């Protein structure tokens, strides 16, 4: 029996682990599939669009030709004026005039655009030009942003659990170190000896029978027969329940003959896992200074790696770019030469947004507590003091 039950227990443990991880994997896979489908859609629509020369583009070429012809041979005299005019003219130019749509809206470029849409970063470097692309972009964001927030909330629970457990373990370790420093060796040894002596005196006896219990209790003997029968009946029921409780825990043998019970209970557990999304994040209570330190270290690590393939960025520019990205501000003032490399860093962006989201949540809770204190303090000040009149 032991050899046959051990594999069944292993299978049950694997099934429990699978159904416990299933909601998290389901959300992440949904977001990845949604991003890939959006990349295929936008690369087909925006990448295959026909390049039409608009009236603004023609005017730009005419003005540029006029400036080139009006430039005199003596460049030193008209150098300042020419620089100003050419600068103003280039500011009127649009980026799409000089970029091939197929190169800009490749699969990786479209995937990068989709990530900036549902993460609400929106750098502004890549945007749809066609009317169909704009309509689909609005529809894509309408469903993608809630899905992204759902993934953020789900992963926020995991990070909140890790942070809270790590912080609690750190506090326990800190308290142990403090107690070991305060406690001298002699007193601690005396306390341990007293505890060992007290524990050695404890004797675990076998459970008494009902008749032995009745013989040992004089109060039961003195009572009438009908009351003794009632108490005897209650004791018998309690003793029967104690014997039947361990049998309920042996669910593997029962469910092996009836798999429908296993499926029903498993499905209920999976549904409970979906209902618990966001609960751990609400319970998180760590110092806000710790979260700020975690964000600083997290951004610093990326700022040290990003200049390896983005040669136009140094550490400070990369730190600024990562902060603007993780906070979903996305000015678009920092241009990426190789966005597809940063796209492979998308897991970093999602986890970083999680950390920033947790920090914002903690800051929000602290602000609410501060507002409550201020309101209660102002209310106490404005409340009229009670006057005691003499009788």
Automatic annotation (TrEMBL):
InterPro entries: 2pore_dom_K_chnl, K_chnl_dom. It is a multi-pass membrane protein. It is found in: Membrane. The keyword DNA damage does not apply. GO terms for cellular component: plasma membrane. Belongs to the two pore domain potassium channel (TC 1.A.1.8) family. This is KCNKI protein. It comes from Sakesphorus luctuosus. The lineage of its organism: Eukaryota, Metazoa, Chordata, Craniata, Vertebrata.
């Amino acid at each position: 029996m032991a050899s046959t039950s051990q594999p069944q227990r292993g299978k049950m443990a694997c099934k429990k682990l699978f159904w416990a991880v299933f909601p998290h994997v389901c959300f992440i896979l949904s977001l990845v599939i949604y991003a890939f489908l959006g990349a295929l859609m936008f690369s087909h629509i925006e990448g295959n669009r026909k390049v039409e020369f608009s009236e603004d583009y023609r005017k730009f070429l005419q003005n540029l030709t006029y400036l080139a012809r009006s430039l005199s041979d003596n460049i030193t005299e008209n150098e300042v004026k020419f620089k100003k005019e050419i600068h103003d003219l280039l500011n009127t130019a649009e980026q799409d005039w000089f970029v091939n749509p197929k190169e800009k809206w490749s699969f990786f470029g479209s995937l990068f655009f989709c990530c900036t849409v549902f993460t609400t970063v929106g750098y502004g470097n890549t945007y749809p030009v066609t009317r169909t692309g704009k309509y689909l972009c609005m529809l894509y964001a309408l469903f993608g942003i809630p899905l992204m927030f759902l993934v953020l909330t789900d992963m926020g629970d995991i990070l909140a659990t890790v942070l809270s457990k790590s912080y609690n373990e750190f506090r326990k370790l800190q308290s142990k170190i403090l107690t070991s420093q305060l406690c001298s060796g002699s007193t601690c040894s005396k306390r341990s000896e007293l505890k060992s002596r007290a524990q050695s005196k404890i004797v675990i006896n076998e459970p008494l029978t009902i008749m032995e219990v009745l013989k040992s209790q004089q109060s039961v003997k003195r009572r009438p027969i009908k009351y003794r029968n009632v108490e005897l009946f209650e004791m018998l029921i309690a003793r029967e329940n104690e014997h039947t409780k361990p049998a309920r825990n042996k669910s593997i043998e029962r469910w092996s003959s009836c798999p429908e019970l296993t499926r029903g209970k498993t499905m209920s557990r999976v549904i409970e896992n979906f209902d618990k999304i966001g609960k751990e994040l609400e319970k998180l209570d760590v110092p806000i200074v710790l979260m700020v330190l975690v964000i600083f270290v997290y951004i610093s690590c990326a700022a040290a790696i990003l200049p390896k393939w983005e040669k136009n960025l140094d550490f400070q520019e990369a730190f600024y770019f990562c902060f603007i990205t993780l906070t979903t501000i996305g000015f678009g003032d920092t241009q990426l030469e190789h966005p597809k490399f940063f796209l492979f860093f998308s897991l970093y962006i999602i986890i970083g947004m999680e950390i920033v989201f947790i920090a914002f949540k903690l800051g929000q809770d602290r602000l609410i507590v501060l507002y409550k204190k201020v309101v209660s303090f102002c209310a106490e000040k404005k409340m009229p003091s009670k006057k005691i009149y003499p009788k």
